[in-house]
TrEMBL record:
<dbReference type="InterPro" id="IPR036409">
    <property type="entry name" value="Aldolase_II/adducin_N_sf"/>
</dbReference>
<dbReference type="InterPro" id="IPR051017">
    <property type="entry name" value="Aldolase-II_Adducin_sf"/>
</dbReference>
<dbReference type="Pfam" id="PF00596">
    <property type="entry name" value="Aldolase_II"/>
</dbReference>
<dbReference type="GO" id="GO:0051015">
    <property type="term" value="F:actin filament binding"/>
</dbReference>
<dbReference type="GO" id="GO:0005856">
    <property type="term" value="C:cytoskeleton"/>
</dbReference>
<comment type="similarity">
    <text>Belongs to the aldolase class II family.</text>
</comment>
<dbReference type="InterPro" id="IPR001303">
    <property type="entry name" value="Aldolase_II/adducin_N"/>
</dbReference>
<feature type="domain" description="Class II aldolase/adducin N-terminal">
    <location>
        <begin position="14"/>
        <end position="194"/>
    </location>
</feature>
<protein>
    <submittedName>
        <fullName>Class II aldolase</fullName>
    </submittedName>
</protein>
Amino acid sequence: MSIDQQHAEKRLRIQLAECYHLIDYYGWTEMIFNHISVRLPGEPRRYLVNAFGLNYDEVTPDNLLVVDADGQLLSNAEDKPNPAGFALHGSIHGARDDIHCIIHTHTNAVCAVAMKKDGFSYDNFYGAQLFGRVGYHDFEGITLYDDERPRMLDSLGQKHVLVLRNHGIAVGESDIARTFFLLWVVQRAAEIQCQTGMIPGADIVLPDTIRQRCSEDAQSVMTHSSAAQKMFDAAVRKLRKERGPLWKGDEGCV
């Protein structure tokens, strides 16, 4: 591995550990379950992921594991990855070169929307940004089995959000910051949809032309600006102000 690759991996490990701590900070964790994975620089079939059994706020750059697309441990570590993780993560990473990071969550709001036959509403500000970007995969049980992989990929297609019906959500983007930004949009869309459902009266339904324009504008901001990285960095700064160093030797906390 070159010096440049070593530096890139170190930075990626720090960002991924920060992301795990952010998910914990915002209350989007599921005990020791769920997972965030990111592709290593210049390594199309090698990924970083959390060790199974750690709370998200216990993840550090050094205890992240290196696995292949099948979830097989490649790093020299006693810990193991979650076996349920890479039936989902590995299939997407292996098929989508444009997706370098994947986050899977089971928040209350997301799980509630995943239970609904119609899935996400595209009539609130955040939901409209997801118009045409969401795939749906029917529930087949815990995602442990290789034979489900092609069906999950068919359900995702070329989209970046996969609703696992009766289960949860997976989002994927080109880097950690963009994936976190997309997850935040999905989470906010689900929360507002759940709140809207509690209020009597008819909803205002947006025309598809407005939904489509909103979705395209959101994707353009995601792709062509630094908004996602700025948001991620701001969230990490706030996290460190409130919690202090995130791990021993945390260089980001001054």
